[in-house]
TrEMBL record:
Pathway: Cofactor biosynthesis; biotin biosynthesis. Its EC number is 2.3.1.47. InterPro entries: Aminotrans_II_pyridoxalP_BS, Aminotransferase_I/II_large, AON_synthase_class-II, PyrdxlP-dep_Trfase, PyrdxlP-dep_Trfase_major, PyrdxlP-dep_Trfase_small. This is 8-amino-7-oxononanoate synthase. Keywords: Biotin biosynthesis, Pyridoxal phosphate, Transferase. Belongs to the class-II pyridoxal-phosphate-dependent aminotransferase family. BioF subfamily.
Length: 240
């Protein structure tokens, strides 16, 4: 049985867990949300899950590599150790693939029963080597400098956005959504930015709730301050 709890509403989660399903309950959340760019209250979610003897799974696709000391991700940052931690290598690692970090007994179970794993080709050695090289950079002093630079770029962007034209969410990750509401307006703005050399994706329902169409902007440490300033200039000058 699948039941959804309201976004970051830990009281709603607690009420759902008070009426348990049959079998082992599993609470699933992202560390950094892919569409809103905000973070989950992981410590509180873990506390509630354990109080009700539920397991916790955290998908940290957008946190691993770019958050926390040595890029250890949002779970490390919040002092949380979930039963299952899913990390992907196509974001901060810049490669591809994914991994599930868990106990040996859970790993044995997944090896036998996870259909997507059982019927998939194993990772080639070259990809594993690329991941090792990427991890070395992430954990190095250079990796720390890159994360600091990214954080500064995010802060620069948020400080420069015209709040009268866009709704800026409480997101301090590399994902910076600008809520524009109307689907057609989101499409027009995305096209206007594209014509000026700025790539922004227009995200519309059903991917996001009705009335919250947005421009989804993703910043990287490869950007420079001048790139952020140019983006802000184009955003504020985009015709409607």
């Amino acid at each position: 049985q699948l039941r959804r709890f309201i976004h970051n509403d830990t009281q709603h989660l607690s009420r759902l867990l008070q009426s348990p399903c049959v079998g082992q309950q599993l609470v699933v959340t992202e560390g950094v949300y892919s569409m809103d760019g905000d973070s989950a209250p992981l410590a509180e979610i873990q506390h509630i899950a354990r109080r009700h003897h539920a397991w916790l799974l955290v998908d940290d696709a957008h946190g691993i590599g770019v958050t926390g000391d040595e890029g250890r991700g949002t779970c490390w940052l919040r002092g949380v150790k979930p039963e299952l931690l899913v990390v992907t290598f196509g974001k901060g690692f810049g490669v591809s693939g994914a991994a599930v970090l868990c106990s040996e007994s859970v790993a044995d179970y997944l090896l036998q029963f996870a259909r997507h794993l059982v019927y998939s080709t194993s990772m080639p050695p070259a990809q594993a080597q690329a991941l090792s090289a990427s991890l070395a950079v992430i954990r190095s002093d250079e990796g720390g400098e890159r994360r600091e630079k990214l954080a500064a770029l995010v802060q620069r962007f948020r400080a420069g956005v015209n709040a009268s034209r866009f709704t800026l969410l409480n997101a301090h990750s590399a994902i910076q959504p600008l809520i524009v509401g109307d689907n057609s307006r989101a499409l027009r703005l995305a096209e206007a930015l594209r014509q000026q050399g700025c790539w922004a994706t227009a995200i519309r329902p059903p991917t996001v709730p009705v009335g919250t169409a947005r421009l989804r902007l993703t910043l990287t440490q490869a950007h420079e301050a001048c790139d952020i300033d140019r983006l802000l200039e184009v955003l504020h000058g985009a015709g409607e």
